[in-house]
Specification:
single chain; about 550 residues; alpha+beta; ten-stranded antiparallel beta sheet; six-stranded antiparallel beta sheet; 11 helices; 23 strands; disordered N terminus; disordered C terminus
Length: about 550
């Protein structure tokens, strides 16, 4: 039954993953590399610094520079030309524009982008994000083209404060204030609207998704608009917008925004301030967006919220509060506690073993050791079933025209010989939650991103490639996994049913196909798991040789 369970697990994973493997769209066109490469290592002592990160000088400066002249929309008093404002902190280089009082660039200096030469960029739309849209009786009024006046100041602990203001001839006044701290990834945005009698609400909009940060075939499958409404977590991928390009979600908004595999841009309003999210997406371009909706009462509105613009780091987001850690994809809800526990175990082990490849190997070994009694029980049960198989076959032949009697006689035979037909499967089922939890952690944890192991395996978050033969990359770990799966199949007790034997030897080929484009971290875990399984089976067979099949009843 061990091999049957492996088939079940393999097919389950295939159902979850084969769609991604076969039907994932082509990756977006890469951003061009910067003219000057960024050093491989962040400066020593910088919070969050890690190997392979991009770095921009972290001196906290602010510059306000005019760019190409642009006339303000008719009737607005604010500025007569566009200005770009740059803000630098140890973790971020940001750029704001007074056109729309928008964020036009947000670079994470501790994380390298697609080319590993420039920092990760969260803003795709050069027109900017966090623009404002009024909801009026005549429809939506987009204020992204308004030229605001801008002033800057310094707040507590060196925080940079940008104040944008604009007023229209009819008395409509809009004020937006950004507070950018010197540490962390949470920005404060305060919006005040006065003199808007025709408006029933306003939206803070992030429309452009997040640019690609990974050169990974499966990367785009993580792109989504996400939100936590009360206790319900929404995860709308681009395909969810095929029929409806715009969808409204109702509920008490704890947070909402967009994500890709490892990074997110989220709006975190104060509890009760927003009860509606407007989500949009385009399946063709694989881009989604989100807008937080807020009320305007008697022509006035005053709102303050946090903006989380950073990595999908479970511990870091949990420290922020507001259940922000639920934005991290740790798999199905039922497995999240176990996934979180495994993630904490891995990060704790990393303090003593600063190589995530070794951590994965150790966890795989520990898992097999802990479950060794179950493995032993499973194999012994399968051996007993194998020895009893001739009698089972004889009973099936004798009562093949009487299904009810066949079932009764078969169960009687099992009971008489003290054999549990499920004994080979049930103990192994206990391990499945661990596997699925590890799958989620190793697939989605940012701790795996750009984490090296040894030699050519220099990034555990993507497939490792030793060399290529023409267009075919040679991934060593899946090939080793395939070989150990074949050996495992050869050692596994099976009945004389040729179909079962055929399936036992076909499954390693299926796993090779499915796992070939998996991240190196997952393949490393599975390969070590296979090697340990082969070793345990060999030990068990030495202790308990395979029994001679019992004779068929006369």
């Amino acid at each position: 039954m061990d091999k049957r369970l492996l088939v079940a697990v393999g097919l389950s994973i295939a159902v979850l993953i084969v769609f991604q493997t076969w039907f994932a769209p082509e990756p977006p066109v890469r951003q061009p590399e910067a003219e000057h490469p960024v050093p491989e290592h962040a400066a020593a002592g910088t919070p969050g610094a890690r190997p392979g990160t991009a770095r921009i000088p972290d001196s906290p400066v602010m510059e306000i520079a005019p760019v190409e002249h642009a006339d303000a929309p008719g009737g607005w008093t604010g500025a007569d030309q566009e200005q770009r404002i740059e803000v630098r902190t140890p973790l971020v280089v940001a750029e704001f524009s007074n056109r729309g009082a928008a964020l036009t660039s947000w670079q994470l200096t501790q994380y390298a982008g697609v080319e590993r030469a420039t920092p990760v960029e969260l803003v795709r739309d050069t027109q900017g994000e966090f623009t404002t849209v009024l909801e009026t009786t005549q429809g939506l009024e987009d204020l992204s083209g308004v030229l605001y006046s801008v002033s800057e100041s310094t707040g507590e602990n060196g925080a940079r404060i940008l104040l944008f203001q604009a007023e229209r001839a009819d008395g409509l006044r809009v004020q937006k204030t950004y507070v950018i701290p010197q540490d962390g990834y949470v920005v404060e945005l305060a919006t005040r609207i006065d003199g808007a009698p025709a408006a029933s609400g306003f939206r803070v909009v992030w429309d452009g998704g997040i640019p690609p940060a990974e050169d990974d075939k499966l990367y785009e499958m993580s792109v989504a608009t996400i939100a936590l409404l009360g206790k319900e977590r929404e995860n709308l991928k681009p395909g969810a917008f095929k029929k409806e390009p715009v969808r409204e979600l109702d509920g008490v908004v704890k947070w909402a925004g967009v994500r890709n595999k490892y990074f997110s841009a989220l709006m975190v309003p104060e509890v009760g301030d927003s009860e509606r999210i407007v989500a949009n997406g385009d399946n063709a371009t694989r881009v989604t967006g989100a807008a937080g909706a807020f009320p305007v009462l008697s022509g006035q509105a005053s709102n303050r919220m946090g903006l989380y613009l950073g990595p999908l780091d479970f511990d870091g987001m949990k420290a922020v509060g507001n259940d922000l850690d639920q934005a991290v994809d740790l798999g199905w809800k039922i497995f999240r506690p176990l996934s979180a526990a495994l993630l904490h175990l891995m990060t704790w082990m990393y303090k003593f073993i600063p190589n995530y490849g070794l951590v994965i190997i150790l966890i795989s070994v520990l898992t097999k050791v802990v479950f060794y009694p179950l493995t032993k029980s499973s194999i012994r049960s399968m051996k007993a079933m194998q020895a009893l198989q001739p009698q089972v076959t004889a009973v099936r032949e004798k009562y093949k025209k009487d299904p009810k009697r066949l079932q009764e006689e078969t169960m009687l035979l099992y009971k008489k010989n003290k054999v549990n037909p499920l004994g080979g499967c049930l103990p192994m089922l206990v391990q499945m939650p661990v596997f699925f939890a590890l799958y989620s952690v190793l697939s989605n944890s940012i701790t795996m991103r750009a984490a090296p192991f040894v030699s050519w395996i220099n990034d555990l978050s993507v497939p490792e490639t030793l060399f290529s033969i023409g267009p075919l990359p040679i991934h060593v770990l899946p090939i080793v996994m395939f070989a150990t799966s074949l050996l495992q199949a050869k050692l596994t007790p099976m009945s004389g049913d040729p179909r079962q034997k055929l399936m036992g030897y076909m499954m390693p080929a299926v796993l090779l196909f499915v796992f070939y484009s998996f991240p190196a971290g997952l393949n490393l875990y599975w390969t070590v798991n296979n090697i340990m399984q082969v070793g345990q089976q060999w030990m068990i067979y030495r202790e308990h040789p395979v029994a001679t099949p019992a004779p068929s009843p006369a």
